[in-house]
């Protein structure tokens, strides 16, 4: 298995920094990594990455203080040993064993008929951005680019990440019944997610984060019983009469990672927030307030005002969270539910953007080991007080908080 995974690295240009998750999704799509015993395919892929690092085939691309590997760099001698000749279609896409179509360096996407014939049996289509920088621009030649989807019924992984000019997904997306991973992150022109997505019963990963024109999620997402990661669930912007509600997802027993975008018009949707306490399988939760198409690309530097504050002081958090990430929080005092009693198992707390000034007054978060504070211009709590509130910290990061010095270290 390790040797086959190693072969995939030869397609990347010299000195490329690669997202770890892209590699693992590729390997899952091709069937190079599969579930093994109690380990999911993602966990097997993570172990494969660690093995490649330990053997010196790839390098960590992370900050030194971060123990998690998120970005990777391929050693030059690996590319030379594996060979650099890459089969391509007439449209210039790299084919890997004719199971994978990988957009290595194209900025303008268009398909020709001859290219379709070579790619029809593909299990993996990485058309979107794999680079770490969001500045790498990819543009679809036309909104009709995806009308060919129904012909690729063996797809297990489809990435359109960061591609502009994609305004919709055709209903034929529902015919990709083997699809396991759908990455639509940062498709900034995407206006609608069709209800046919709910026909993808093998889907384990769906990412629509940073798709700021999406105003609702399609009804029926609760039927995707295998889904483990759902990013970008929208609350409060909907003009739809019957969108999917957050509380409907409580029955998803495999859902361990969820990110939510709370829109300006979330008033009156209190049940959405109360029902979070029923998400007993959830381990990682990200909540972003008020993000729209005008939000900066990092998604955290600006807290937007409006009605998005509804329900924030009545949120009932999931009981088993390991990680909580709060972005663009619109008040200067911490929400009433952010207490140690509500998060007895919390180990990682990230607060990015917004009007936070203080948190945890008179409390101690004894379980929290990692605290990251970023883009908080009004935050006033200095390091000595932070260490009292979080006495068991092992990592503290403070970045662009003008009242505090920058901190980025292990304790």
Topology (elements, then pairings):
Blueprint: H1 2-7, E1 17-19, H2 20-30, H3 41-54, E2 58-60, E3 71-74, H4 76-82, E4 94-96, E5 100-102, E6 108-109, H5 113-119, E7 124-126, E8 138-140, E9 157-159, E10 163-164, E11 181-183, E12 205-207, E13 229-235, E14 257-262, H6 270-274, E15 284-289, E16 323-329, E17 348-354, E18 370-374, H7 383-389, E19 395-399, E20 407-410
Parallel strand pairs: 5-7, 6-8, 7-9, 8-10, 9-11, 11-12, 12-13, 13-14, 14-15, 15-16, 16-17, 17-18, 18-19
Antiparallel strand pairs: 1-3, 2-3, 4-5, 19-20
Helix pairs in contact: 2-3
Tell me about this structure.
Residues 11-78 form the Disease resistance protein winged helix domain. The protein is of the alpha/beta class and 411 residues long. The chain has 3 domains: 2-82, Arc Repressor Mutant, subunit A (Orthogonal Bundle); 87-214, Ribonuclease Inhibitor (Leucine-rich repeat, LRR (right-handed beta-alpha superhelix), Alpha-Beta Horseshoe), CATH 3.80.10; 233-411, Leucine-rich repeat, LRR (right-handed beta-alpha superhelix). The protein has helices spanning 2-7, 20-30, 41-54, 76-82, 113-119, 270-274, 383-389, and strands at residues 17-19, 58-60, 71-74, 94-96, 100-102, 108-109, 124-126, 138-140, 157-159, 163-164, 181-183, 205-207, 229-235, 257-262, 284-289, 323-329, 348-354, 370-374, 395-399, 407-410. The protein has a 14-stranded mixed β-sheet with strand order 4-5-7-9-11-12-13-14-15-16-17-18-19-20, with helices on one face. A 3-stranded antiparallel β-sheet has the order 1-3-2. Strands 6-8-10 form a 3-stranded parallel β-sheet, with no helix packed on it. Strand 14, helix 6 (270-274) and strand 15 form a beta-alpha-beta unit. Helix 2 packs across helix 3 (41-54).
